[in-house]
TrEMBL record:
Pfam families: zf-CGNR (PF11706). It comes from Nonomuraea africana. Residues 157-199 form the Zinc finger CGNR domain. This is RNA-binding Zn ribbon-like protein. PANTHER family: BLL6575 PROTEIN (PTHR35525:SF3). Signal peptide: none annotated. It comes from the Bacteria.
Length: 204
């Protein structure tokens, strides 16, 4: 029996827990640190209230829980975090250049695995202290999840869109890690561009 590195824990519920934090990292980067998307330039929100709105809307769209305690000041701090997380995506196997930055985030935001519990519920694994601020909690969880993906040899799944004029990031969960684009629109744009290039080559 061969153990898939991504399923190394043997417990899908833990894998999905890590994946949820990776997806939140993707969301923060795409909403707060990307200036090209789907073939055009975009302006990331520049104020705390706008950043907060963008994060909340993106969480809802992704099916992740919104946080009513998220403040505009938190959103500003998360924009800084998003910029620091951005180099992790698209590095492929060349992770050395961004490992130090990720390690610094883990230390600065006090990432520490521990169990959070309530009297009437089972304990829940977290990557931050129970008394952590929202920014520290989100950053510690996201950075730890990214480090876990990289640490089991799956860093190439942390991707950037390969379409022209798109810098959106994504977590490639395909079986053979073959996904190249952030979504269908960029995939179609890339196919159309390749078709035009082939047609042009034939007429030369």
């Amino acid at each position: 029996m061969t153990v898939d590195p991504w399923r190394i824990t043997g417990q899908p519920q833990i894998d999905s827990y890590v994946e949820r934090h990776v997806q939140r990292a993707v969301l923060l980067v795409n909403e707060l640190a990307v200036d090209q998307a789907h073939g055009r330039k975009v302006a990331p929100p520049a104020t705390g209230p706008d950043r907060r709105t963008a994060i909340q809307e993106a969480l809802a769209t992704a099916g992740l829980p919104r946080s009513e305690s998220l403040t505009p000041a938190d959103a500003d701090a998360l924009a800084v975090v998003a910029a620091e997380l951005r180099p992790v995506f698209g590095a492929g196997a060349r992770t050395e250049s961004m490992i130090e930055g990720l390690n610094q985030l883990l230390v600065r935001h006090a990432a520490v695995p521990n169990l959070h519990g309530q009297p009437d519920r089972p304990p829940v694994l977290a990557f931050h202290r129970a008394d952590a601020s929202l920014v520290d909690a989100w950053t510690a969880d996201a950075a730890t999840a990214l480090a876990m993906v990289i640490g089991v040899g799956q860093g190439a799944r942390l991707r950037s869109c390969e379409a022209t004029s798109c810098a959106r990031t994504f977590f490639d969960t395909t079986r053979n890690a073959s996904r190249r684009f952030c979504g269908l629109s960029c995939q179609n744009r890339a196919k159309a561009s390749a078709y035009r290039q082939r047609r042009a080559a034939k007429t030369d």
